[in-house]
Amino acid sequence: MPKRLGLIINPVAGIGGRVGLKGSDGTEVQRKALELGAVSRSAERAREALQVLIRHGLSFEIVTYPGEMGEETAKAAGFTPLVIGDIANSYTTSEDTVQAAADLMNYGVELLLFAGGDGTARDIYSAIGTKVPVLGIPAGVKMHSAVFGKSPKSAGQLAALVLKGEAKKVREAEVMDIDEESFRAGSVSAKLYGYLTVPYEQNFVQNVKSGGSASEVETLGAIAQYIIDGMQDDVLYFIGPGTTTRAIMERLSLPNTLLGVDVLKGKKLIARDVNEQTLLQLIRESQAKMVLTPIGGQGYLLGRGNQQFSPQVVRKVGKENIIVIAALSKIIALSDHALFVDTGDPALDQELSGYMRVITGYNEETVCRVL
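Now predict its structure.
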């Protein structure tokens, strides 16, 4: 009897990212995101993971839910899935995810693969706890949890190893999430909701997000001053999310959006909390540079919480105009001192790979691999 792979796709996961809404939880936020022209990419990212499985030539059965919760994507990837369950409304809800997870567990899947973010992970945890191995395809805005593959490709590769019987190690991984209303107001407070059982291979699974320490304050001030001293009056600076980048705004005595993208021209604030479309419009008018900092504990530069920096924005800015800043202690704490990108565009991810300078102090820098 072939092994069974469960598949759940949250079709609204990550829909608020590029339009600057910092999350996708709640029907009102989803409605606003669609009004702003947002497009769901969770199906696309799930298909990328499934295509990796096809290349392994494995014999297994995909069990999934109807329509956009898995059936459509599985068929588009070349599978003939077994479809179970029903979706109560014309649009999916967290209750559908909970029910789907329970149904797939009861059907006896070897591994439950899901495309979504932290909210989706919470729903699945509430349904099955640690009873069935689970692996997330990263497709949300905020992915603080340690249950996701480093990219859709990594998730597909690890799922293949599980189905081959070559990845036998599992661990209980944290399911973390934050209050999105507080998040949009600039306050980050991540809460541990529980644990999911996740197949574990270090090269394929991301770590839980970690915070900074008070001892880094002086270092961040030095980094900020170095960036400020090098600013040109006729250049746009896209200041990405994070407490490290916030130090630049504080040094300039400017208001900032801790979890969004602000824009400076020289040292003057010209736009706050902008979305992808605004960034694209601004790039037409002037040369731009992006100031990024990796997520502590994970090392992601792009694709986690800063989806406003879409592939189109990154390409127009250019790799040579990406400025990376981080306290040296943050870099040292990363696995293999490596940084990661997961823009949703595999070709761009490849272009960004290699080595990148990271500013770690005033006129101090190190070099990190980008994977």
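DSSP finds 13 helices and 16 strands in the chain.
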